[in-house]
Write a structure and sequence with these properties.
heterodimer; A: mainly alpha; 13 helices; flat; B: alpha/beta; Rossmann fold; 6-stranded mixed β-sheet; 20 strands; 40% helix
Chain lengths: 309, 581
């Protein structure tokens, strides 16, 4: 197992290099001059612009810029964004917020998705099953920003059950409503996946055998149906953690959350190459690590899967 | 110490049973006028009607029938485990006097495990793959209020004949062989010493010798514990050998029941008569008994007739010389170990005859078949087909070779393309070999369907609309399409019900006498060999241990292994008069 984990970590190296190169190239090819954009409506002061170009290595060819950027990563100096703040500090500010949001969304979708999916599967064709199936279709069908605005308006503004916007501290309490909005789409998928998986397992021979042993219904469901049904669900959830981290842009926009999505969006607009690449690289690494975590969980849940040999 | 306490509890239970027996001879299980209905989208379907059977304490009763006869459904009703859409619509199931036909789930949970145990059919799918064997035994003990420490689990497993039980308990099902899994399932079924054990085809997925060992062990354990057994099986020979009474079910009804030997010797219902006549284990036993009485065996079996008439020329169409196949098994970090699947095997097959290769799983018999079909390259040795070494053939010659040697595989579900209709399935080899034009190919397909006794309307149908037996007929028709000389049947009838199996074997024999075909028949079922083969090759762990004419091998087996295989045929110990047929 250790060999396997080591191998997977080694695989991160080419993924890291590839991702940074690709993203760096994309930002480099963006039309428009970021320095000119910096001046906004004011006339461009050529002397200042030239100085800035040198400072951010924008006068160098692509390869030199990229290599300089790599060098700065390995010396743990990610440079500064255009407002002069160290990028490392920016990352340290925005990632905890989004991580909090994503983990809350993940807990929400996993807990309720699995719970509702299990009940729906066990009571196939009954009222509960029919209701959640229709509801999940609606949730999947409506774009997240529509859902976000609707919930923000009704729950946040009209009913005032939760704060409609998030304070700069982005506390757990602030993030409850955004986390639900962010997790809703995946919640519907988790629900449907669990339901299908439960239905499949319920007719498995070993479930019947478990009943024949004299186990209570609760035990049969918990020990034999639920655990076996969770294998595909866990895979989805692990992959989704990465997607939630990067995909929070819309939700963060609606609720004005000072997280990764917001910062990334601004950085893309103003063409801040190093900031964009740094954020995206961290996202890629998170994605890779959460996939590794899924694979390890997978082996833990299903002993037939072994990564050694 | 453990053994002592267990023996003591066994004695107590026996004493209780005797006591109960003296008090009143009440049946342990009595099924009266049972009807079971399944709710389907096409309305209610009655799976079982007017079923009745009685099991006395400690008695073994077998229900025999083909798939879909309602035998498993009846047994599942007795333990309250009918599938969701099924229910008991009429009648009673009296367990020790208590009607449990529509008992609540709570009462059934109390009964399951410690009063009524179950050993299910398929050892591959009945253990939860994600839990250790020990955990699955432990939860059974725990649910029934018995001590469930690691020692108790190990005792239960070792009583079911699992060696090294304490260590084995820590393994997962996928680390067990089929036989070991079935032992674990038997351990689970008997762990709480139930008074009734429902054994649903407990060994049908296993090799014959393993089957015998496990059934013997089950017999021994249930006798010691005084457990009554409801044995579900499709094999009449096995039922007759293991059970005191046999109940025959056909299309949801009990057509006949009675003491095993009586029923076997004097079947009343036409279905039972057909079953007795075609059960392979019984048929082969009948030949043996007949021989002892001086009757010619050929007269007893239609298939034997045909094969006997077939061969006239005694030319070797296939010669297998010192054939070996070594597989490299990976054992981590680029290392590999050699595994000899087939080891120095030599035999020859005469034109127009049937040669059977017999052995258990892992004996290498299918590997031989694949090498003969030129689908696997031998590590060493030669396969000479019609005087030519098949390893020297170039791709064009192999193409021609394929036309002359055709396979029929085991699984009639997997070997037909579900997206092809039957016409396209049978026509495909003709098209591949560019034989004839559209019209003549269609004519040929019609002829082939006639030959395998399928109506011509079958052409437009798809595999999923056909039964297992019909699919196997399609597979035979496809194999015959190219007018081959040799047909390799790899377990071609193993997946079929006995009556269907008998029909397919008859068909193969008839085709052989009509077309002069040569069969190489790969099977684990000696009873089938007895009916169809002229020569037998017995394989064990890659080696050919015995070869000879079918009569010689069956009448005077030379090797211990062959004797063990022959003994393991269910019904081998029965004494049957030949006129049963």
């Amino acid at each position: 197992m250790t060999t396997y984990i080591l191998k997977r970590f080694l695989q991160l190296i080419p993924v890291f290099l590839g991702a940074t190169l690709l993203v760096y190239f994309l930002v480099f090819s963006l039309p428009g001059d970021p320095i000119v954009a910096l001046f906004g409506d004011k006339p461009v002061n050529e002397a200042v612009a030239a100085q800035l170009r040198v400072q951010y290595h924008l006068d160098q060819p692509f390869w030199v810029q990229y290599l300089l950027y790599l060098k700065s990563i390995f010396t743990f100096d990610l440079g500064q964004d255009f407002s002069g703040r160290p990028i490392a500090a920016v990352l340290g500010e925005v990632f905890p917020v989004t991580a909090r949001l994503a983990i809350m969304a993940l807990i929400f979708e996993a807990f309720f998705g699995i719970l509702f999916g299990l009940i729906a599967g066990l009571r196939k064709g009954k009222l509960f099953d029919a209701t959640v199936l229709v509801a999940s279709l609606i949730v999947i069908g409506i774009p997240i920003f529509v859902l976000g605005f609707l919930l923000q308006y009704f729950i946040g503004v009209q009913l005032a059950w939760a704060k409609p916007t998030v304070s700069s501290a982005a506390t757990v309490q602030d993030l409850i409503l955004p986390a639900i909005v962010l997790g809703l789409g995946s919640f519907a998928y988790v629900l449907r996946l669990t339901r299908t998986s439960v239905l499949e397992n319920m007719s498995a021979d070993y479930v019947r055998t478990a009943s024949a042993k004299g186990l209570s219904r609760f035990k049969v469901v918990r020990v034999h149906i639920l655990r076996n049904s969770l294998i595909p669900v866990i895979t989805f959830l692990g992959a989704d953690l990465g997607a939630l981290m990067g995909g929070a842009i819309v939700t963060e926009g609606i609720f004005n959350i000072p997280g990764v999505g917001n910062r990334l969006y601004r950085a893309v607009l103003s063409g801040e190459g190093p900031t964009v690449v740094s954020i995206v690289t961290v996202l890629v690494l998170i994605y890779c690590l959460s996939n590794l975590l899924v694979d390890l969980l997978y082996a833990w849940l299903d002993p037939r899967i072994r990564y050694d040999s | 110490m453990k053994g002592d306490t267990l023996n003591a509890s066994v004695e107590i239970q026996e004493a209780e049973i005797q006591e109960a027996g003296f008090a009143a001879v009440r049946p342990l299980l009595e099924i009266k006028d049972l009807a079971i209905t399944f709710a389907t989208s096409n309305g209610a379907v009655q799976a079982v009607r007017n079923a009745h059977l009685t099991i006395m304490p400690g008695e073994t009763v077998a229900i025999v029938g083909e798939s879909g006869s309602g035998k498993s459904t009846t047994a599942l009703a007795a333990i309250g485990l009918l599938p969701g859409n099924g229910r008991v619509s009429a009648g009673q199931i009296l367990f020790d006097g208590e009607d449990i036909a529509n008992a609540g789930e709570k009462r059934m949970i109390e009964l399951r495990g410690n009063s009524i145990g179950m050993v299910p059919q398929d050892p591959m799918s009945n253990l939860n793959p994600v839990w250790k064997i020990g955990d699955q035994v432990k939860e059974t003990l725990k649910a029934n209020g018995l001590p469930s420490g690691p020692d108790d689990v190990a005792t239960v497993l070792s009583q079911a004949g699992l060696p090294d039980a304490a260590r084995r308990a820590k393994q997962y099902p996928h680390e067990f062989s089929g036989g070991m899994r079935q032992r674990a399932l038997i351990a689970i079924g008997l762990s709480c010493q139930p008074r009734l054990l429902i054994a649903d085809e407990p060994t049908s997925a296993l090799d014959v010798t393993v089957q015998r060992q496990i059934l013997d062990h089950l017999d021994k354990m249930t006798t010691e514990l005084g457990t009554a057994v409801l044995l579900i099986t499709h094999d009449l020979g096995l039922a007759a050998e293991r059970a005191d009474k046999v109940v025959v079910m056909y299309r949801g009804q009990v057509v006949e029941s009675g003491p095993s030997l009586e029923l076997l010797q004097n079947p009343q219902h036409p279905y039972t008569q057909r079953l007795v006549a075609s059960a392979p284990s019984l048929a082969s036993r009948r030949i043996q008994v007949a021989k002892e009485l001086g009757v010619e065996s050929d007269e007893l079996l239609a298939p034997a007739d045909a094969t006997a008439a077939g061969p006239a020329v005694a030319e070797d169409v296939l010669q297998i010389q010192n054939l070996s196949k070594v597989f490299k098994l990976r054992s981590g970090f680029g290392k590999s170990t050699d595994f000899s699947a087939v080891d120095d095997v030599s035999f020859s097959v005469k034109r127009g005859t049937t040669t059977a290769i017999v052995g258990e799983s892992g004996s290498g018999k299918s590997t031989v078949a694949q090498m003969v079909l030129n689908l696997l390259t031998p590590t060493s040795g030669k396969i000479i087909f019609d005087g030519v070494d098949t390893s020297t053939l170039n791709s064009r010659e192999i193409f021609a070779f394929r036309r002359r040697v055709q396979p029929i595989f085991q699984d009639p579900y997997g070997s037909l393309d579900p997206m092809y209709n039957i016409f396209r399935t049978i026509e495909e080899p003709l098209r591949t070999h560019k034989i004839g034009d559209k019209a003549s190919r269609e004519k040929k397909v019609r002829e082939l369907l006639d030959q395998v006794s399928l109506p011509q309307s079958t052409m437009q149908r798809y595999p999923n609309e056909l039964s297992g037996g019909q699919r196997q007929r399609v597979a035979i028709a496809r194999a015959l399409a190219l007018d081959p000389e040799v047909i390799i049947c790899d377990e071609a009838v193993s997946a079929l019900d006995v009556l269907v199996q008998a029909q397919v074997l008859n068909l193969l024999a008839e085709l052989q006498s009509r077309l002069g075909l040569t069969y190489l028949f790969i099977t684990h079922d000696l009873a089938v060999v007895r009916q169809i083969a002229d020569h037998v090759c017995v394989m064990e762990q890659g080696k050919l241990v015995e070869t000879g004419s079918t009569d010689d091998v069956f009448d005077a087996p030379q090797q211990d292994y062959t004797k063990a295989l022959l003994n393991a045929i269910p019904g081998a110990r029965l004494m049957l008069p030949p006129e049963v047929a």
